[in-house]
Each structure stands twice: as C-alpha cells, then as structure tokens.
Amino acid sequence: MWTDGYKYIPTCGAVAMKIVALISQKGGAGKTTLAVHLASRAAADGRTTAIIDLDPQATAASWGDRRVANAPEVVSGQAVRLPALIKAAEENGAEFLVLDTAPNADQTASLAARVSDLVLIPCRPAAFDLEAIETTLLLAKAAAKPAYVVLNAVPPRSSIGKEAAEGLSGRGAQVAPYSLTQRAAFAHGVIDGRTAQEFEPNGKAAQEIDQIYKWLCGLVDMPTRRHARKAA
Ligand SMILES: Nc1ncnc2c1ncn2[C@@H]1O[C@H](COP(=O)(O)OP(=O)(O)O)[C@@H](O)[C@H]1O
Ligand SMILES: [Mg+2]
Predict the structure, then answer these.
(1) For 41-56, what is each residue's pLDDT tens digit?
(2) Quick one: which atom of ligand 1 is closest to the CA of 153?
C-alpha cells in the first residue's frame, strides 16, 4: 500500500509513467545517490515522482523519512510486491518512478530492469568497480532494456573518467554522456533528507544532476518543463 502521506499532485501535460531502475552489483557505486537526486529533480520539474526502495538496507527510504518536502514519495518494498507497488504508483498518478536496488545482480535487480523503461548502472571509475560491472551489464542485456553506465564520483580535474568511459565503450557498454563528479554536496546534501541541488542550488553538483536528468528525459520521452520548481 502507498504510505498515508502520499499526495497526488496533478500536473498539466501529464505523461504515462516512466520507470528508471538503478542497478549495480557493487555497493557504494551511487545507486541511491542517483535515485534520490534524479527523483527529486523530476519532482522539482513538476512531475509526480516516487521511489521504490528495493534494498533491504532501505537507504533511500531512510532518506525519505528525514526529508521535509513531500516529494518524491519514497516507499520501501520487496521484489515480490513490485508489480503491486508499480500499480499503486500508477494509480496515484506517478509520472516518474525510480527503482533503487540492493548491491546485487540477483532476481530483484533483474526484475527491476525488466519492468523499467531505462536501466542506469552507476559505476565508480576505479579498477575493481570496472571489473565487477560485467555481471550487471549481462543482467541489463538479458532484460533487453536500454541500459547505460553512469560514471559516478569521478575525480575532478583528471582524465580518469574519460579513460573509464573509453574502456567501457570498448567492452560494448553504452556509457551516459554525462557523469557525476566526486563532490561533497552529493554526500552532505542527503544528511537531512535534501539533495545536492537543494543544498547548493547553483552548485556544480546541481548542474550535473540537471544534465543527466535532461538527457534521460530525452531517452524515456518525458518532456522537461522550462522552469524547475521547488519540491512540495
Ligand atoms: N558523486 C559523489 N560524490 C560524493 N559522494 C558520493 C558520490 N556518489 C556517492 N557518494 C557517497 O558514496 C556513498 C555510497 O553511495 P550510494 O549512493 O549509497 O551507493 P549505492 O547505493 O550504490 O550503494 C554514500 O555515502 C554517498 O553519499
Ligand atoms: Mg544504495
């Protein structure tokens, strides 16, 4: 069931619900970071947005508990209930649904990928992370959904991100044209249930989220609004 505090916020020009799954076998890759930032960005764009947190660690759900703003709605759930939760999101008018998953390439991640319009695979540009990504790429391929690696926590002022992207492309992976840099705002902003863009609205972290958000809107065919607005 959807939580009590859920409010349907009607938006003009509503679109059919788009689902984006964050999957990666590696812990600490940035699944939850991307989930909460992209969902909040969509909410600020006037999209009725929800996150389903499928990770038993419930990091996104705890973030939602700390959050003062009503949007995005964050619901904790198990894979077995995913179809029912997706239906509830749709019935509650959700236009943008983000699935955050545990660091596993298991049945839950596979199910999340299969029900999604787009799979994002966050990955740090570090040797162990790049090595471990293969299983996740195979899982996304089996789901037959558009899947992109999003490089995350890229060291600033270095060629490491570019080299990692080239290496991944060479292995046949699709790499998002935008990445997230290692920035304090991404970690600090979430402490009290906010996001980097709310913590530092004109900061570089906010700009990076903006770029990825607009890029993914193009992929899932969800028009962006001209002016971002504050989450309700
Ligand atoms: N781009 C970034 N810059 C700074 N810190 C980051 C960045 N991405 C993630 N982190 C931090 O790294 C840790 C792991 O990120 P998280 O999103 O929880 O990974 P996952 O959900 O894949 O396990 C968190 O403490 C998060 O705040
Ligand atoms: Mg997580």
Answers:
(1) 999 999 999 999 999 9
(2) 1
